[in-house]
Amino acid sequence: MQLTILGCRSGSPADGQPSSGYLVETAGARLLLDCGPGIAVALSERVTPWTLDGVVISHLHSDHCYDLLPIGKSILSSTLEVPGGPRRRAERPRSVPLLAPAGSSELFARWAKLFPVTTIPMLDRAFETGFDVREYYDGASYRIGDCAISLRELKHVRTNCGIRVESPTGTLVYSGDTGMTPALVELAAGADVLLCEATFSEPDRSEHGHLAAAEAGQVAAEAGVGELVLTHFASTEPQWLASLPRAAATEFDGPIRLAAPGLRIPVTSALGAAHP
């Protein structure tokens, strides 16, 4: 399994960096976890959207789902051929499975209607044809290619599910946005890599639900993960960023990395290393 960081900013994209988005590739699947603003462009530098095998959205805050519409339109545009334009790149639409929180379909329908392309109606069917929308609930599980995907509700102001992706060669757990909760430790138990938000340098005392770096380290230690990757940063200020792995290391004595756009991280278990 290979993890590529496409974007790692919290809230809006800034400083030339997209918001949240992560590409996961295995021998049998290509998955996109979240797609905030800027991810459609970052994704297109790596793969063509219509070759994705699935998209999983942790929650419906804009910094985690805003680029679904342009990605959906890109999937549809691959089948279109406009006089004077480029040749079509695919013979027929390929609906990419989109796992999204319960209630998403109604939101997506309203969203698509905001920007109609009256001369090419197919492009208005991003969430009907481009994606195969599957609404999930806490505890849901799916299989896409060689990956088993599990979703667990965590602690956030808007319903957020952490995502566990298990393949024959490695296991990745992604927190989405969450405050401290035993559910994240349970979801991450034994994972090879924990991709965990570290939005703040100090604990979040509000009801919003975010983690500080030291709390991410505590989760990693309690879950017994192989490696901790911190993400979802509020700033790119060098001193502030440098403080995050130091804080996480007060709780977790394993490898710790800071996410950065373009960073590629192998997610490999001991078994996977022995059997590539």
Can you give keywords for this protein?
276 residues; alpha/beta; 7-stranded mixed β-sheet; 25% helix
Would you kindly provide a written description of the structure presented here, covering whatever features stand out?
There is one protein chain. Helix 6 crosses helix 7 (213-223). Helices cover 25% and strands 26% of the residues. Helix 8 links the parallel strand 12 (227-231) and strand 13 (256-258). The chain is α/β, with parallel strands linked by helices and 276 residues long. It has a 7-stranded mixed beta sheet. A 7-stranded mixed beta sheet has the order 7-8-9-10-11-12-13. The model is unreliable at 271-276 (pLDDT under 50). The protein has helices at residues 39-44, 62-65, 68-77, 104-113, 126-130, 182-188, 213-223, 238-249, 270-274, and strands at 2-7, 21-25, 30-35, 54-56, 96-101, 131-136, 141-144, 147-153, 161-167, 170-174, 193-197, 227-231, 256-258, 264-266.
Gyration radius (Cα, Å) is 18 Å
Q: Please outline the major beta sheet.
A: 7 strands, mixed
Number of helices: 9
- SS elements, strand count: 14
Q: Low-confidence parts, pLDDT < 50 over ≥5 residues?
A: 271-276
Rounded to the nearest angstrom, the distance between the terminal CA atoms is: 10 Å
Globally, the shape reads globular
Work out the helicity level.
Answer: 25-40%
Note the beta-strand portion.
25-35%
The succession of helices and strands, N to C, reads: EEEHEHHEHHEEEEEHEHEHEEH
